[in-house]
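Give me the fold.
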Amino acid sequence: MKAAVVVFVGLCLVGIWMLTSSNIGPEDLSYIIPRSEVKDKASTPSLDRSGTDDVRSGDTGDPENTVEQKSDSKEEDEPSKRNGDRKVAFDDTSETDTSTVENSGEIVEDMVLENEDRPQKDEKSDGVGSQETVEKFPPENQSESLNEISSQNGSPHVVEWKDEEVVEASSPEDQITDRNWKLCSVTARADYIPCLDNEAALKKLRSTKHYEHRERHCPEQAPTCLVPLPEGYKQSIKWPESRDKIWYNNVPHTKLVAYKGHQNWANISGQHISFPGGGTQFKRGAFHYIDFIQESWPDLAWGRKSRVILDVGCGVASFGGYLFERGVLTMSCAPKDEHEAQVQFALERGIPAISAVMGTKRLPFPSKVFDVIHCARCRVPWHIEGGVLLLELNRLLRPGGFFVWSATPVYQKSPEDMGIWQAMSALTKSMCWKMVAKRKDKVNNIGVAIYRKPSDNSCYDKRAEQNPPICQKSDDPDVAWYAPLQACMHRLPVDSSNHGVVWPYDWPARLEKAPYWMNTSPIGVYGRPAPQDFTADYEHWKHVVSNSYVNGIGIDWSSVRNVMDMRSVYGGFAAALQEMKKVWVMNIVLIDSPDTLPIIYDRGLFGLYHDWCESFSTYPRTYDLLHADHLFSKLKKRCPILPVIVEVDRMLRPGGNLIVRDHVDTISSIENLAKSLHWKIRMTFSKGKEGLLYAQKSIWKLPSSCHCSHPDLPTNPVQLKCNTCSSKMDEIGAANYCHQAALEVGLSQGASECFDDDGRPKRTGTVWTASAHIVTAVIGSGVLSLAWAVGQLGWVIGPAAMLLFSFVTYYTSALLSDCYRSGDPAAGKRNYTYMDAVRANLDGFQVKLCGCLQYLNIVGVAIGYTIAASISMVAVKRSNCFHKNADDDDDDASCDVNSNPYMIMFGVVQIIFSQIRDFDQVWWLSFVAAVMSFTYSCIGLGLGIVQVIKNGGFKGSLTGISIAAVGQMDKIWRSFQAFGDIAFAYSYSIILIEIQDTIKAPPLSEAKVMKRATVISVAVTTVFYMLCGCMGYAAFGDLAPGNLLTGFGFYNPFWLLDIANVAIVVHLVGAYQVYCQPLFAFVEKLATTTWPDSRFVCNEIEVPLWPGGKGYKYKINLFRVAWRTGFAAATTVVSMLLPFFNDVVGLLGALGFWPLTVYFPVEMYIVQRKVERWSTRWVCLQILSLACLVITVASAAGSIAGVVSDIKVYRPFQG
């Protein structure tokens, strides 16, 4: 009995000891608690200064979906704007706790080298040499790396696996906490960089002279909205293939391709943008250029001595991309400017780059760190304003480093270039830079000048003039965060305790050796002597990377190229990844941490300073893996976690990876946010108070509903079923808004109940709807001139010509329908417009030509519509006059009407309608236009039939109007013009792709359905045209008027003629706006790109619609008003000068027929189907194209001859 009591008391004491143990309690219980309960028992996330939970900050209560990121404490807010108080030395241990965390007399803290806030310092140990890092991994690839420091005798302390909590894969759907995420309502949309696209801040800038508008201007409140994917986004191509090509849809920008294509920067090739390896200064390829520089100055020693370089104004970064093969790591930088998305191209290719500009602030790098700085036509005015920009490069360049300058002043002799060369020569001499080489490359026809920065201060001391001046001692050259540029030079260090005195070891030895100047630092970041700290950090990360990250947690490293260490110390994580040759790492040193960035550069790596309370200067979707070692727990003392996670989501590509090592409460908060973003939680791991999270960004899937968010809706956001969502958006004038909302929250690119494979709402079109669209689009004002056309050609050639044009139209439309998708005809990338198809299949010149022809055709159509509308208005006036004066003998003379006032009236109406936003998108506009066109066409046909019956037979002849009536040459010109009139009536190729984009597929592909629709619609149209043209000619014979309803072949019933002509006017009012919108949009986008800082071009003025200023206000853009008014006025004036409907219609038909209906579809089909040159099919297609070209030339000549003939008897502005 006594023994039992003793055993019982002993067991109680053991239980009490276990419960009071800080390590065993939570760990031993975790395996019997359900996962959801384990998460619920996690520590509550810390509160920010306002007393709100940092995970919940800026939730749905905030209408702008943003959170305050600035602390109320001035002392804590200071690091977010400057790093002037930072020290390069590592003896600042104010934020480190050197106490030892022990469990039962043994050290068990597992992340000692990962947590700067709690470093280990073993006072019994003699440095790091007696310590050893050991990791214990779970079975079945469920591994996590825990750094274990051994006891004094050197034997490792191994933690049994059963004491850890491992959570694999994602939580069930019912455990995911949904948040009301919103899309970012910004102009940049899929390319949004918050600190570079802050439109509100940019509008307040007083000057942009020094590129202030390209610098960082972060929002006062950190955004918590999500950035959408571009339409058709695909998983990025893997390195090294990505160096040479990327998916077009991932960076869908063509301006740079068109602007720089001749310099071999980039080309569009089907679904890809390819990079031939050229550049402005190396059109023949980067390798030759790189070798040419090496040959010019062999001491550069690419990849051995010159390891880390800066490429200023990098373009698409081909220079840096090809330097990888020389063992060189290049930091490429360029501004976000008119060179559309150049940095985004670079990062999508897998080449390191950041968006940065040399304006008024220092670049975010420490001093004396780059071995080489390169500038190839980088468009930076180095010589102006005291050389302040070149002096910034001098700050960044390592003593003894090189500046490679390849620009026109080096090798061209124009007065401007020679002036710049002289100024640069004087400036570099005054800076003590020595030009060590100047050489011309005959292959690329360019030249290079190479300068070397001095290694000591001797030259500075010998200068006769201290200009540029030496910087004040108080100006720390390593202070770079929001620090203003200084037009001065810093003295070079001479004390071995400073970096930059001695050139680093050759690569790759410099990677593993602590920089010489660390030997003078008594203590490192983690509390040990600095060199030992460095070595321990490196050994630790090598062990973690090789045993956990590479082989343990399940990352697919074949898909990883762009990596970021969001909180780097010595660069150990990046150094450990160097064995994986295909990855590069951007090391981020926090602005409120010890300044270890120079160490990172000295070991042959790179990085920059940053404050994660602000957005990073990179495009969305640019990194494959982000690594955050105890970042968030440190960061949330100054700003909430939520916007930082949103920034992580912005930077990561779909499928990208996030590894977080932090305190368990912080891990829990991040895991909840990741789940709400529908990320895949691949692993969570915790031991004591430390944890690890591995998550993978996914693409949201909304299987049964679409989440629509729009400010005009009564609630925001709303959730509507698919069949009601689009209609609701149409009611508020936001067409396809479900599609945009779905994309902006990351809709799956796979087909679903609501959406097609490109993320757009399910298409519902059929062969019948497509046929109806074509018939509606084709049958219009062109039908009015067909009777005249048949009259010129006669009963034989006239109908035959219409049949011939119908066949050519059908055949080329079938070719064009095959170009709706690029690549795979069933699953390839969709082309939504005619221009998209041309851009996807043809080269830059042909794209430009197509654009010019389209816009020229639009101008011509606007003129033709103005003429036709005014003629119809005049016809109404004259018809009523004839009816009123039916008994007068001289009724014709008394009913003459001047058409100019009616043209002016039509022009004024177009000026007004052109200012209405999205007028062309009004849902009922197309319906009204279709009704009107069928109304006047059917009236014309009906009146023709009645007239034939009245005549008692058909008029006309087999050969058309006789030569005796018009003369031999006029007969020829009229016949040619008739072909143009028929061609104009059949033209619809420009909108065929857009009609095809409405078709539902599968089971049949869009191309097959479109071909069937084309057969039906062309057949219906041809029958209708035959009836209209032939019945009109049968009714009037050789006297058939150029416009069947206004030429007054008919006089009665006058009211029916009035209805027909009013229908023409109503139709043309809307058609004018629909046709001109692409031209309006093109010019306005060009203007905003060219003059982004012009208030006249970009600003909008709110004008109340009624007196008092209350109620709805209309936004007016002055440039839009001026440009659209000018366009309508110009087309009106031209119409008044040349009011010849029939001639203009013939000319428009001629100009649009061959290039748009025949040539481009044929050429695109050849490329799409890879038709071999000189094959039978290729020859036949070229013969067809050539024959149609002859018809176009003849038609244009006949129409021009008609205009010339009319001008001889017409007096401008006399009606």
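The mean pLDDT is 76.
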